[in-house]
């Protein structure tokens, strides 16, 4: 006991005296009395509530074929929320775009295996998942997948629900406890799997599939029973344009959309939000974060009051990666009213037509 106290004292003293030494030593250690000294890359974030830290999120994070880096690269680059659309494909949860026949991003299990490896290799990081449960699969089925990859034991369980933004624990305490994966789900999260947390009682969102680059900061989706001022909030900062009647990413404008400043930029929407809500958004959900060469992470770092000092350049955008899915048959997602005509053409023929149409098929934002 005395040893533990002495160790803690030494740790605290050393932190004052030798922060850079400790940031090296502060890595893997699950021992009693562990105190994270660097959290999500910065000592300053350890004492901040999860509910007041700003993270960059990757919209449709598994959509590698649509031009995104793999999940490991995304996390290495600084993405701290992974958003995904999950579908039930013959009893297996898959991450697909719109429907698995259009874009099959693989199984949730494979995806989470990669996430688990990354979390194991990066013990001082808190990560959030946002699962769009498109086919209303029961949370117990998700629980089985999380258990199979060993992520259930890393899942943060809120002490009460809803948890107001500022009642969330600090990143440091989450890292110390090992409960550093925060999983939100848009619906079906009924509390029966306590680490799968209902999104809209805890987070409100701005509009998605926005086609107006002015990006307002109004509440679009939330649980109306909860006071939005106390919630965390997420901005859907990805610009779409309408192609063949459906929203698709406005790829030509990505550099502008992801920029830190200027009309239509992420920075501009954040300014609107801060003016309107007196606090920044918690989650900045973007498409193709690679565009802007780190600008999206710069915006988050500024809001968090830390320096953005990437150790390596941000991954190069990999537009056109969709060409690997050569013979896939495609169809449009019927809209909710069911009267959208079904399109049917080969992937390759579309690719040869134009890259914008490729984006419609491989990387559309039909659904959040
Ligand atoms: C992710 O992509 C990077 C860069 O292309 C590659 O080096 C790495 O092997 C990939 N990792 C996985 C797990 O696929
Ligand atoms: C939410 O945003 C969508 C556009 O993405 C819009 O059609 C809808 O009317 C908005 N709903 C509310 C309640 O603001
Ligand atoms: C975005 O900026 C990068 C680097 O400045 C440039 O190489 C790329 O072509 C630009 N992309 C678009 C779509 O403007
Ligand atoms: C789509 O095309 C394939 C062959 O290219 C055909 O087998 C299939 O029936 C078509 N589906 C529809 C809905 O037309």
UniProtKB/TrEMBL annotation:
Keywords: Signal. Residues 1-26 form the signal peptide. Residues 314-338 are annotated as: Disordered. GO terms for biological process: lipid metabolic process. It holds the Pfam family PI-PLC_X. Residues 319-332 have a biased composition (Low complexity). It comes from the Eukaryota. One of its GO terms (molecular function) is phosphoric diester hydrolase activity. This is Phosphatidylinositol-specific phospholipase C X domain-containing protein.
């Amino acid at each position: 006991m005395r040893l533990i106290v002495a160790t803690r004292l030494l740790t605290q003293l050393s932190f004052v005296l030798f922060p850079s030494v400790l940031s090296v030593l502060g890595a893997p250690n699950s021992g009693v009395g562990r105190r994270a000294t660097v959290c999500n890359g910065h000592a300053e974030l350890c004492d901040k509530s999860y509910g007041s830290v700003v993270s960059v999120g990757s919209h449709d994070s598994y959509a590698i074929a649509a031009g995104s880096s793999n999940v490991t690269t995304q996390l290495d680059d600084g993405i701290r929320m992974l958003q995904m659309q999950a579908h039930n494909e013959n009893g297996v949860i898959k991450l697909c775009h719109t429907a698995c026949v259009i874009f099959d991003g693989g199984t949730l299990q494979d995806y989470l295996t990669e996430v688990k490896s990354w979390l194991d290799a990066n013990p001082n990081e808190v990560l959030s998942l946002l699962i769009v449960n498109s086919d209303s699969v029961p949370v117990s089925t998700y629980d089985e997948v999380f258990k199979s990859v060993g992520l259930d034991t890393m899942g943060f369980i809120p002490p009460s629900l809803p948890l107001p933004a500022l009642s969330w624990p600090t990143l440091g305490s989450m890292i110390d406890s090992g409960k550093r994966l925060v999983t939100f789900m848009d619906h079906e999260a009924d509390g029966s799997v306590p680490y799968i947390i209902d999104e809209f009682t805890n987070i409100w969102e701005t509009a998605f599939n926005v086609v107006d680059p002015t990006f307002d900061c109004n509440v679009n989706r939330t649980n109306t029973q909860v006071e939005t001022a106390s919630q965390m909030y997420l901005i859907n900062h990805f610009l779409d344009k309408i192609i063949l009647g459906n929203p698709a990413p406005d790829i030509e404008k990505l550099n502008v959309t992801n920029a830190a400043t200027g009309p239509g930029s992420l920075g501009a929407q954040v300014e609107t939000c801060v003016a309107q809500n007196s606090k920044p958004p918690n989650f900045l959900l973007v498409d193709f974060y690679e565009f802007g060469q780190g600008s999206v992470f710069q915006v988050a770092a500024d809001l968090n009051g830390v320096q953005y000092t990437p150790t390596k350049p941000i991954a190069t955008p990999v537009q056109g990666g969709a060409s690997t899915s050569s013979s896939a048959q495609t169809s449009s997602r019927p809209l909710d009213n069911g009267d959208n005509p079904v399109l049917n053409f080969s992937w390759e023929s579309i690719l040869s037509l134009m890259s914008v149409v490729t984006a419609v098929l491989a990387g559309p934002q039909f659904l959040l």
